[in-house]
Design brief:
alpha/beta, Rossmann fold, 5-stranded parallel β-sheet, about 15% strand, binds glyoxylic acid, oxidoreductase, D-isomer_DH_NAD-bd
């Protein structure tokens, strides 16, 4: 039996699966596990099943000890994990791609609709108790049909968002570091462009790239200035891909029309400049938050940990 430490609450089915084979120590407090408690608990762990709220760095790996074999992140994004520190210690790192693709694309599209059709504004107005009535010019938004979606990062979630956009009658352009299967881009009638062209032609820019040094503040003042003044920015990827200061300024000055955000630079803090504005829809990192998806993520993380513990190749190693 190996010792498996789970750093936060995850669906019971995954805990049971781990418990069938191993000794599981799962944090079940209502708050996130504190750093000190985490460092203490991981001592002697053979596997760590981590949530994206926990930083898995050299300090944590060393606190676990040299017997540690696997860090199984319950997320597709793994910017909370120092992958090279894992590699240097012979620890396999894994994530949960695929199972959250549709849920996250749904939230991206939800934000596109919230921002372009001013849904949050409408809801806030009703709840405020203020008088309102139907009017020809009341809370007018922007239509999506015939407009262009620019997908930054055309992996699974970017493609799934593009598929939804196509169903809404949008044209697709995308920017991607890697070649995308031509049958997929043909099906979506999607045209590959560089970021400059994408920013210039898109009516909605949706971010789906991973976060890392190469994408830190990928969208800053200069990129926002390159967007159409009628365009919207949507971020369901990671907060620090966008320079929030610059975004708050662009939204306040209306150099872009609006934005929809599910992620923030310093979660759970939201930039105060954004909170004041009506032309930004704000969600609390809900991309993968469905019962089905979170269960599938936890089960995949459990499968990843179990495979490594039994000396097998895990289903989703981080490349
Ligand atoms: C959620 O943000 C994830 O990366 O899975």
């Amino acid at each position: 039996m190996s010792r498996v430490v789970v750093t936060g609450r995850i669906p019971e089915a995954a805990i049971e699966k781990l418990r069938a084979e191993h000794d599981v120590d799962a944090w079940s407090g209502p708050e996130s596990i504190g750093r000190e408690e985490l460092l203490r608990r991981v001592a002697g762990a053979d596997a760590i099943v981590s949530l994206l709220t926990e930083r898995v760095d050299a300090e944590l790996l060393d606190a676990a000890g040299p017997q540690l074999k696997v860090v199984a992140n319950v997320a597709v994004g793994y910017d909370n994990i120092d992958v090279s520190a894992c590699t240097a210690r012979g620890v396999v790192a894994t994530n949960t791609p695929g199972v959250l693709t549709d849920a996250t694309a749904d939230i991206a599209f939800g934000l596109i609709l919230m921002a372009t059709r001013r849904l949050g504004e409408g809801e806030r107005l009703i709840r405020s108790g203020e008088a309102w009535k139907w009017g020809m010019f009341f809370l007018l938004g922007s239509s999506l049909q015939g407009k262009t979606l620019g997908v930054v990062g055309m992996g699974g979630i970017g493609q799934a968002t593009a598929r939804r956009a196509k169903a809404f009658g949008m044209e697709i352009v995308y920017q991607s570091r890697s070649e995308i299967d031509p049958t997929i881009t043909a099906e979506l009638n999607a045209r590959r462009v560089d970021l400059d062209e994408l920013l210039a032609v898109s009516d909605v820019v949706s971010l789906h790239c991973p976060y890392g040094p190469a994408t830190h503040h990928l969208i800053g003042a200069e990129q926002l200035a390159a967007m159409k003044s009628s365009a919207f920015l949507v971020n369901t990827a990671r907060g620090p891909i966008v320079d929030e200061d610059a975004l708050a300024t662009a939204l306040r000055d209306r150099t872009i029309a609006g934005a929809g955000l599910d992620v923030y630079e310093q979660e759970p803090r939201v930039h105060p400049g954004l909170l004041e504005l009506d032309n930004v829809a704000l969600l609390p990192h809900l991309g993968s938050a469905t019962v089905e998806t979170r269960t599938a993520m936890a089960m995949l993380a459990a499968d990843n940990a179990l495979a490594v513990l039994s000396g097998e190749q895990p289903p989703a190693p981080i490349a």
